[in-house]
């Protein structure tokens, strides 16, 4: 992928980890299409904005149309995710549908759009997963199920698209930033609660992205970035742990 003009598409690029990824790719020389949900949402400096509702069946067309006239799309990062709590005994059918639409169906639609436009050069799709899949717990049930399904799709699409020169991989980080509903105090206590005693940072995800970009023979893999947390998995989501 090096040395040629190329475009990367990053979903959920207006804030949090997505904004870090988009900005870093721009610094690396990529043309970046930064997906956001609303017209008013800002994107990193230098990025091309693509506005789309990931719950919409036309989201793939809307996002990829923003890349018209730009260098070939060589990288798709499915970063955006819905993260709303429901649990066993309090499952919301509406939340299950909403999580599956954003966290699974949208990446599938974007993957299909990527494959339709691909010209045979090295292409890479990266799905942002969650390290809790390596040691699951039942909290945030709909979210967890949607990420498990996306992990399955990561392998299936890697198998299906390899003949086209498209690689598909996943990155599964642990807690990086304070979650919705989590107190600052709880975040500080649990961020580095792992065997290495090192909290995972957005830059760690960017390092993993750079690795996957640089090695054109890796496909169908999931890089777990959790400081070894899966070696002693918590029984609950980390924000519910007490000292």
TrEMBL record:
SUPFAM superfamilies in UniProt: NAD(P)-binding Rossmann-fold domains
Ion transport as UniProt keyword: no
Pfam family, any one: adh_short_C2
Keywords: Oxidoreductase
Family the entry assigns: Belongs to the short-chain dehydrogenases/reductases (SDR) family.
Protein name listed in UniProt: SDR family oxidoreductase
Organism for this UniProt entry: Sphingomonas sediminicola
């Amino acid at each position: 992928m090096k040395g040629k003009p190329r475009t990367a598409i990053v979903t959920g690029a207006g804030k949090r980890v997505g904004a870090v990824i988009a900005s870093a790719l721009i610094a690396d020389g990529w043309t970046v299409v930064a997906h956001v949900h609303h017209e008013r949402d800002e994107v990193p400096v230098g990025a091309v904005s693509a506005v789309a509702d990931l719950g919409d069946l036309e989201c793939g067309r809307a996002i990829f149309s923003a890349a018209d006239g730009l260098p070939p799309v060589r990288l798709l990062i499915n970063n955006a995710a819905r993260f709303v709590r429901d649990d066993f005994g309090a499952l919301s059918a509406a939340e299950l549908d909403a999580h599956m639409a954003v966290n699974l169906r949208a990446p599938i639609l974007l993957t299909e759009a990527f494959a339709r436009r691909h010209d045979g050069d090295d292409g890479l799709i990266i799905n942002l997963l969650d390290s809790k899949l390596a040691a699951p717990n039942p909290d945030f049930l709909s979210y967890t199920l949607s990420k498990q399904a996306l992990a399955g799709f990561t392998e299936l699409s890697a198998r299906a698209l390899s003949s086209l020169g498209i690689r598909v991989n996943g990155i599964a980080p642990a807690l990086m930033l304070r979650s919705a509903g989590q107190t600052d105090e709880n975040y500080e206590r649990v961020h580095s609660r792992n065997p290495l005693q090192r909290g995972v940072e957005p830059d760690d995800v960017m390092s993993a992205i750079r690795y996957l970009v640089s090695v054109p023979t890796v496909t169908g893999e999931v890089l777990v970035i959790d400081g070894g947390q899966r070696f002693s998995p918590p029984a609950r989501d980390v924000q519910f742990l007490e000292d």
